[in-house]
């Protein structure tokens, strides 16, 4: 299994603050990895640094074996799907869900939708249970539905690496279940997935590996922490690292303790 992501002693400074430091991380082909941590621990910054979207101050990060530290233009976007945090696909723009998903097939070297693109876009919308809204204007979709359109836009290029920043934030349980099914499919197809999460929720069984950030350093890299005793019920599913068998006690605050509604 080759490494799709390789990070060595990574440091990111933003303004006068050091946001990430000493990050060592590898993610192999086909792995599904959750990136957990409290608000402000640096999860989004790490994802953005990997994609060349924030400057790297020290160490290195490579995608598909290519360093992105000094070569931001080397980020192989056609092989990557990325859904940023609170992705709004632009409720103000006069476009349908299908048209937005089609933009996922464009990149700096391709300005035209390829042959078969429309079918692929409809399939991507179907995979997030939005086939029936393909022709809906975005402004008629809810925030959660727009989030799913953003995921479909990332999926339409059949990425080898899919990076999702809090895809389940603010979405209801049926949507979470849809996302869990989607992840199962991606996993069986061998897609490498990195997901920023606050709670494992319904995708807990699919996550073999959790990387937990705390104050900009990796506090844990290993199995998913077990739910705290009495906290595994369907209406109360957040992780408590101090109850996880693999967890050192100093990471107990690393995951925001927040119940699902
Ligand atoms: N452009 C920026 N300039 C300065 N500081 C920044 C910038 N972007 C983020 N930060 C700071 O970096 C820290 C980490 O932010 P980041 O968004 O990576 O955290 P996070 O773990 O993703 O948090 P959340 O769970 O709230 O999304 C925060 O303290 C934030 O204020």
Structure characterization notes:
- A hairpin with a 2-residue loop joins strand 4 and strand 5.
- The protein has helices at residues 43-50, 97-102, 117-127, 143-155, 173-188, and strands spanning 3-14, 17-28, 32-37, 58-63, 66-67, 80-83, 161-165, 192-196, 209-214, 217-222.
- The chain has 261 residues and is α/β, with parallel strands linked by helices.
- The protein is built from 5 helices and 10 strands; from the N terminus they run βββαβββαααβαβββ.
- The protein is globular.
- The strands form 2 sheets. It has a 6-stranded mixed sheet, sandwiched between helices. Strands 2-1-4-5 form a 4-stranded antiparallel sheet, covered by helices on one side.
- Residues 14-15, 17, 19, 37, 39-45, 85 line the site of adenosine-5'-triphosphate.
Strand order of the largest sheet: 6-7-8-3-9-10
- Describe the largest sheet: 6 strands, mixed
Low-confidence stretches: 231-261
Total strand segments: 10
Q: How much strand content do the residues show?
A: 15-25%
Count of runs of 4 or more consecutive helical residues = 5
Structural class computed from helices and strand pairing: alpha/beta
Q: Evaluate the radius of gyration.
A: 18 Å
Q: Mean pLDDT, nearest integer?
A: 82
Which small molecules are bound? adenosine-5'-triphosphate
Q: Kindly state the percentage of residues in helix.
A: 10-25%
Could you state the order of secondary-structure elements as H and E? EEEHEEEHHHEHEEE
Query: How many angstroms does the end-to-end distance come to?
Result: 39 Å
Net shape:
globular
